[in-house]
Design goal:
Length: 163
């Protein structure tokens, strides 16, 4: 995942409600799967790309585990989602061991429809951001000769922990 992607995800997380957080986790997982696939394409023998592949698989597993841990099993679809997530974790392990991209495609086919469904639900969720005391982001863009500069306002001193 590129630095810009991480910054974008971080901004979105600070402004997201609970449903949007699930969408963000799905998108992060898909991004890590893409990283793993790209690393596999260049992987021939032990190389720096093998480390990139392992890191992408580890990060994708972390996203899946977070999705599993966020389930509230008192509600009906949680058990089915848990089974899907566990299937994805097993397929990810197989991909990591065999260094194959087939299982990564299977995970993608499971996660993409879930992401799309959660996007629709997130659009209907009127709840505010989960993080109450985070920095509000107001962004303005300034165009330079060869650059695009992002300016953020409201860099308040009262961020993070409430006193």
């Amino acid at each position: 995942m590129k630095k810009e992607d991480k910054q974008q995800f971080t901004r979105r997380i600070t402004q997201a409600n609970s449903t949007e957080l699930v969408v963000i986790l799905y998108e992060m997982l898909l991004c890590y799967l893409e990283d793993a696939e790209n690393a596999l394409k260049t992987l021939e023998k032990p190389s720096p790309e093998e480390g990139a592949f392992r890191e992408a698989v580890r990060n994708a597993r972390g996203c899946l585990l977070e999705l599993v841990n966020s389930l509230d099993l008192r509600y009906e679809p949680a058990a089915e989602l848990q089974r899907l997530y566990m299937f994805c974790i097993r397929r990810l392990a197989i991909s990591g061991l065999r260094k194959e991209d087939g299982p990564l495609d299977e995970i993608r086919r499971v996660i993409e429809p879930l992401r799309d469904a959660y996007r629709q639900v997130a659009a209907q969720n009127p709840a505010g951001p989960v993080m109450n005391n985070s920095q509000s982001v107001y962004v303005g863009l300034t165009y330079g000769r060869n650059t695009l500069t992002e300016n953020m306002a409201d860099q308040g001193a009262n961020r993070g922990i409430l006193a």
